[in-house]
From TrEMBL:
Superkingdom assignment: Bacteria
InterPro entries: Cyt_P450_B, Cyt_P450_sf
Source species: Dictyobacter vulcani
Protein name: Cytochrome P450
Protein family per UniProt: Belongs to the cytochrome P450 family.
GO MF annotation: an example: iron ion binding
Amino acid sequence: MAEHITTSDLLAQETKRNPYAFYARLREQAPLTYVSNLQGLGGAWITTGYDDAVAILRDTRFTQDAQKVLLSDDGLASNAENAAARRLIAWRRDMLTVDPPDHTRLRGLFSKVFTPRMIEHLRPHIQQVTDELLDAVQERGEMDLISDFAFPLPITVISEMLGIPLRIASRYASGHRA
Protein backbone atom coordinates (compact mmCIF):
# COMPACT_ATOMS: atom_id res chain seq x y z
CA MET A 1 0.00 0.00 0.00
CA ALA A 2 1.46 3.36 -1.01
CA GLU A 3 1.65 6.31 1.32
CA HIS A 4 1.49 9.87 -0.03
CA ILE A 5 4.20 12.18 1.28
CA THR A 6 5.38 15.61 0.18
CA THR A 7 8.75 17.16 -0.43
CA SER A 8 8.19 18.96 2.87
CA ASP A 9 8.25 15.58 4.62
CA LEU A 10 11.59 14.75 3.01
CA LEU A 11 13.06 18.15 3.92
CA ALA A 12 11.59 18.45 7.42
CA GLN A 13 14.06 19.16 10.23
CA GLU A 14 13.06 15.93 11.97
CA THR A 15 13.86 13.97 8.80
CA LYS A 16 17.20 15.74 8.41
CA ARG A 17 18.12 15.08 12.05
CA ASN A 18 17.25 11.39 11.82
CA PRO A 19 16.65 10.24 8.25
CA TYR A 20 17.11 6.61 9.30
CA ALA A 21 13.88 6.57 11.32
CA PHE A 22 11.99 8.24 8.46
CA TYR A 23 13.19 5.73 5.87
CA ALA A 24 12.74 2.78 8.26
CA ARG A 25 9.09 3.83 8.67
CA LEU A 26 8.71 4.02 4.88
CA ARG A 27 10.30 0.58 4.44
CA GLU A 28 7.93 -0.94 6.99
CA GLN A 29 4.70 0.92 6.25
CA ALA A 30 4.95 2.11 2.66
CA PRO A 31 7.77 0.57 0.62
CA LEU A 32 6.30 2.22 -2.49
CA THR A 33 5.68 5.90 -1.79
CA TYR A 34 4.47 8.80 -3.91
CA VAL A 35 6.17 12.16 -3.28
CA SER A 36 4.22 15.16 -4.53
CA ASN A 37 5.70 18.48 -5.62
CA LEU A 38 9.22 17.14 -5.95
CA GLN A 39 11.44 20.19 -6.50
CA GLY A 40 8.48 22.03 -8.01
CA LEU A 41 8.35 19.66 -10.98
CA GLY A 42 5.48 17.39 -10.01
CA GLY A 43 5.58 14.08 -8.23
CA ALA A 44 7.66 10.94 -8.23
CA TRP A 45 7.53 7.47 -6.77
CA ILE A 46 10.12 6.30 -4.25
CA THR A 47 10.72 2.65 -3.47
CA THR A 48 12.69 1.71 -0.37
CA GLY A 49 13.09 -2.01 -0.97
CA TYR A 50 16.05 -3.46 -2.85
CA ASP A 51 14.06 -6.14 -4.69
CA ASP A 52 11.41 -3.61 -5.73
CA ALA A 53 14.08 -1.16 -6.91
CA VAL A 54 15.81 -3.82 -9.02
CA ALA A 55 12.49 -4.92 -10.54
CA ILE A 56 11.56 -1.33 -11.41
CA LEU A 57 14.97 -0.53 -12.87
CA ARG A 58 14.77 -3.60 -15.11
CA ASP A 59 11.20 -2.91 -16.24
CA THR A 60 11.19 -0.79 -19.41
CA ARG A 61 7.72 0.57 -18.58
CA PHE A 62 9.43 2.77 -15.97
CA THR A 63 11.80 5.64 -16.68
CA GLN A 64 14.24 7.88 -14.89
CA ASP A 65 14.27 10.23 -17.87
CA ALA A 66 12.41 13.38 -16.86
CA GLN A 67 12.08 14.42 -20.50
CA LYS A 68 9.95 11.38 -21.29
CA VAL A 69 7.51 12.18 -18.50
CA LEU A 70 7.45 15.92 -18.06
CA LEU A 71 7.83 16.99 -21.68
CA SER A 72 5.18 14.65 -23.03
CA ASP A 73 1.92 16.13 -24.35
CA ASP A 74 0.15 15.47 -21.05
CA GLY A 75 3.17 16.01 -18.79
CA LEU A 76 3.52 18.74 -16.18
CA ALA A 77 5.85 20.89 -18.24
CA SER A 78 3.59 20.91 -21.30
CA ASN A 79 1.77 24.08 -20.26
CA ALA A 80 3.08 27.63 -20.59
CA GLU A 81 3.35 28.11 -16.82
CA ASN A 82 6.14 25.56 -16.72
CA ALA A 83 8.43 27.00 -19.40
CA ALA A 84 11.28 27.20 -16.88
CA ALA A 85 10.79 23.55 -15.99
CA ARG A 86 10.97 22.61 -19.67
CA ARG A 87 14.27 24.47 -20.09
CA LEU A 88 15.74 22.87 -16.97
CA ILE A 89 14.68 19.38 -18.00
CA ALA A 90 15.97 19.80 -21.56
CA TRP A 91 19.35 20.98 -20.23
CA ARG A 92 19.83 18.22 -17.65
CA ARG A 93 20.66 15.15 -19.66
CA ASP A 94 23.29 13.05 -17.94
CA MET A 95 23.95 9.50 -16.82
CA LEU A 96 21.72 9.88 -13.76
CA THR A 97 18.70 11.08 -15.72
CA VAL A 98 18.58 8.95 -18.87
CA ASP A 99 17.44 5.44 -19.68
CA PRO A 100 19.15 2.80 -21.80
CA PRO A 101 20.53 2.88 -24.42
CA ASP A 102 21.80 6.41 -23.62
CA HIS A 103 22.63 5.41 -20.04
CA THR A 104 24.51 2.34 -21.24
CA ARG A 105 26.53 4.41 -23.73
CA LEU A 106 27.46 7.01 -21.08
CA ARG A 107 28.28 4.34 -18.52
CA GLY A 108 30.60 2.70 -21.04
CA LEU A 109 32.47 5.96 -21.54
CA PHE A 110 32.93 6.41 -17.79
CA SER A 111 34.00 2.81 -17.22
CA LYS A 112 36.89 3.33 -19.65
CA VAL A 113 38.16 6.23 -17.54
CA PHE A 114 37.37 5.03 -14.02
CA THR A 115 39.34 1.80 -14.11
CA PRO A 116 40.83 0.29 -10.92
CA ARG A 117 44.27 1.31 -12.20
CA MET A 118 43.18 4.94 -12.71
CA ILE A 119 41.55 5.08 -9.29
CA GLU A 120 44.73 3.69 -7.70
CA HIS A 121 46.70 6.38 -9.51
CA LEU A 122 44.34 9.01 -8.03
CA ARG A 123 44.65 7.63 -4.49
CA PRO A 124 47.16 10.26 -3.24
CA HIS A 125 45.03 13.12 -4.56
CA ILE A 126 41.83 11.61 -3.18
CA GLN A 127 43.56 11.27 0.19
CA GLN A 128 44.63 14.93 0.04
CA VAL A 129 41.07 16.09 -0.71
CA THR A 130 39.79 13.80 2.06
CA ASP A 131 42.24 15.28 4.55
CA GLU A 132 41.26 18.84 3.57
CA LEU A 133 37.56 18.09 4.00
CA LEU A 134 38.11 16.45 7.38
CA ASP A 135 40.38 19.28 8.55
CA ALA A 136 37.66 21.79 7.69
CA VAL A 137 35.02 19.99 9.78
CA GLN A 138 37.44 19.43 12.63
CA GLU A 139 37.93 23.18 12.89
CA ARG A 140 34.14 23.62 13.11
CA GLY A 141 33.77 20.85 15.66
CA GLU A 142 30.80 19.20 13.94
CA MET A 143 30.06 17.36 10.73
CA ASP A 144 27.21 16.33 8.48
CA LEU A 145 28.58 13.25 6.72
CA ILE A 146 26.64 13.81 3.50
CA SER A 147 26.99 17.56 2.96
CA ASP A 148 30.48 17.90 4.44
CA PHE A 149 32.12 14.78 3.02
CA ALA A 150 30.17 12.30 0.87
CA PHE A 151 28.92 14.98 -1.52
CA PRO A 152 31.98 17.23 -1.94
CA LEU A 153 34.61 14.46 -2.19
CA PRO A 154 33.56 12.97 -5.55
CA ILE A 155 32.51 16.37 -6.92
CA THR A 156 35.94 17.83 -6.12
CA VAL A 157 37.92 14.91 -7.52
CA ILE A 158 35.86 14.47 -10.69
CA SER A 159 35.64 18.19 -11.48
CA GLU A 160 39.42 18.49 -11.15
CA MET A 161 39.87 15.47 -13.46
CA LEU A 162 37.62 17.11 -16.05
CA GLY A 163 39.10 20.59 -15.63
CA ILE A 164 35.81 22.08 -14.45
CA PRO A 165 36.11 24.85 -11.85
CA LEU A 166 34.82 23.54 -8.52
CA ARG A 167 32.33 26.41 -8.07
CA ILE A 168 30.65 25.49 -11.37
CA ALA A 169 30.69 21.74 -10.73
CA SER A 170 29.27 22.20 -7.23
CA ARG A 171 26.44 24.38 -8.50
CA TYR A 172 25.49 21.85 -11.20
CA ALA A 173 25.85 18.85 -8.92
CA SER A 174 23.68 20.37 -6.21
CA GLY A 175 20.74 19.74 -8.51
CA HIS A 176 21.30 15.99 -8.08
CA ARG A 177 21.03 16.03 -4.31
CA ALA A 178 17.84 14.60 -3.04
